[in-house]
Design goal:
The chain has 16 helices and eleven strands. The chain is an alpha/beta fold. The structure holds glutamine.
């Protein structure tokens, strides 16, 4: 048997069902490795002792019919967990202990998963590098000195470092797919309305989606199956027939039509990314798929549209943090003074920037010029995809315009930081599903990902395409435990 923490989810499940290993042994192995991996700063809150208790409970009374039988799992600290601190990476929620559980995490526990801890993320999921977190930046375990991506940076880092066998993130503009791409892991953003948003700290409500992150496509399919459920507690949850994504997984993509959008061939794209994309095209062709050149003409408007819509919704969602209802509170001379001090001390600078942009684009004088215009352009972006899907079954693009960048490299240049999302945000604006899979390395040996975008509710199809590509790519993580050597 392989070392426990480097096993995939499906391997762990098989070993636990075959009684080769117990839930306590698995949980201990992940805890031990996490103890040696503090340098990465992946965790905000550890839940180790209660994880061990729950693992023991599972072993005393095991149920192998569950989909995640006794599997310890750390989750992004944006999911509310009943009785366990939930910070959203912010000082303003530093001491917030929810009295309820998010539906997505509840689904995981109902299926036998065990909470290992809460993972670092950009503050309120605003960022692309995990550097906006109040709890400090996170390190990329497979690219020393580089960011793990964001906002689900702690999730990607913990997964790539073998501190959790699978994890969940949220993706408003790329926060699952971009960190997956930067760390050589798999990340899927489901169709808007697939996974309940109940109990997830809100960033931009019309864009936010929870999704699975894993070491391979099969694990991703299984976790999606667990977390994607219709939920009456979320008014935007959609009641559609969900597949048994893992058992219906197939490598037969013969005859599938895959679109290659010309607008994604942007200026200044590193040659390595372009080459990776061409290789991806060859792989799907080898699998029997047909390549079709397509156009998504409004692509270049996606980023400016996103950076109007997302801050607008954020400014409204974040108005609830006033020092009265939640978390941190600063003393003031009067009510207004208390509000102002709480919000200026409680929120970091990126969050404040978004609130200011958001209130500006929603203000009565500028609403029509910015917010309303952005909503119209959002519809045009959606129409582009609808038009493309008349001729293709899925779309293949790079996940990100570059591999991971250095820690600190873009912190003073928000616009260059925002440019990271150029290939991921159109998907959120259109509400579509998309998966990022590791597809190769750059000249520094850092991972790079490819993205498969599907039609709404067509998760099975993109999983199948990713599954067949994965076999051809045969990606092997270049993990070398540098941080553990440092820790000694
Ligand atoms: N990087 C994007 C942003 O900063 C996306 C974040 C996300 O998907 N949560 O808004």
């Amino acid at each position: 048997m392989n070392d426990i923490t480097s096993q995939t989810l499906n391997e762990l499940i098989k070993n636990i069902k075959d009684k080769n290993i117990s839930s306590v042994e698995i949980t201990k192995a992940f805890i031990n490795r996490s103890e040696k991996s503090k340098i990465l700063n992946s965790f905000v809150t550890e839940n180790f002792s209660s994880a061990l208790k729950n693992a023991q409970k599972f072993d005393d009374n095991p149920n192998f019919d569950l989909k995640l039988p006794g599997i310890p799992i750390a989750v992004k600290d944006l999911f509310c967990t009943d009785g366990v601190r939930t910070t959203a990476g912010s000082k303003i929620l530093n001491n917030f202990i929810p009295s309820y559980e998010s539906t997505v995490t509840q689904n995981i526990w109902n299926d036998g998963g065990i909470l290992l801890g809460k993972l670092n993320c950009d503050e309120f999921a605003m960022g692309s590098s995990n550097e906006t977190s109040f709890f400090g930046n996170v390190h990329n375990p497979v690219a020393k000195g580089f960011v793990p991506g964001g906002s689900s940076g702690g999730s990607a880092s913990a997964l790539a470092a073998n501190l959790t066998p699978i994890t969940i993130g949220t993706d408003t503009g790329g926060s699952i797919r971009q960190p997956a791409s930067f760390t050589g892991t798999v990340g899927l953003k489901p169709t808007y309305g697939s996974c309940s948003r109940y109990g997830i700290v809100a960033f931009a409500s019309s864009l936010d989606q929870a999704g699975p992150m894993s070491k391979n496509v099969k694990d991703c399919a299984l976790l999606l199956e667990v977390i994607s459920t219709y939920d009456l507690k979320d008014s935007t949850s959609i009641n559609f027939k969900r597949n048994n994504y893992s058992s219906e997984l197939s490598k037969n993509i013969k005859g599938k039509k895959i679109g290659i959008p010309k607008e994604y061939r942007i200026d200044d794209m590193p040659k390595e990314v372009d080459k990776l994309w061409s290789k991806g095209i060859e792989y799907v062709k080898d699998c029997g798929a047909e390549i079709i050149d397509i156009s998504l003409p409004h692509t270049s408007y996606a980023l400016p549209t996103y950076y109007i819509v997302a801050p607008a919704e954020a400014s409204s969602n974040l108005s609830r943090y006033d020092g009265v209802k939640y978390g941190f509170r600063s003393e003031g001379n009067n009510l207004i003074d208390m509000y102002e001090k709480t919000r200026s001390e409680g929120f970091g600078s990126e969050v404040q920037r978004r609130i200011m942009i958001g209130t500006y684009v929603l203000s009565s004088g500028y609403y029509d010029a910015f917010y309303l215009k952005a909503q119209k352009v959002r519809k045009l972006i959606k129409n582009d995809f609808d038009e493309a899907y008349k001729t293709v079954d899925a779309i293949l693009t790079p996940s990100t315009p570059s591999s991971a960048f250095k820690i600190g490299e873009k912190t003073n240049d928000p616009v260059s930081m925002y440019l990271n999302d150029i290939f991921t945000v159109p998907v959120n604006l259109a509400g579509l599903p998309a998966i990022s899979i590791p597809a190769g390395f750059d000249s520094k040996g850092h991972p790079m990902g490819l993205q498969v975008i599907g039609k709404a509710f067509d998760e099975q199809n993109i999983l199948n395409i990713a599954y067949s590509m994965e076999e051809k790519i045969n990606f092997k993580s270049k993990i070398n435990d540098w941080w553990i050597k440092n820790e000694k």
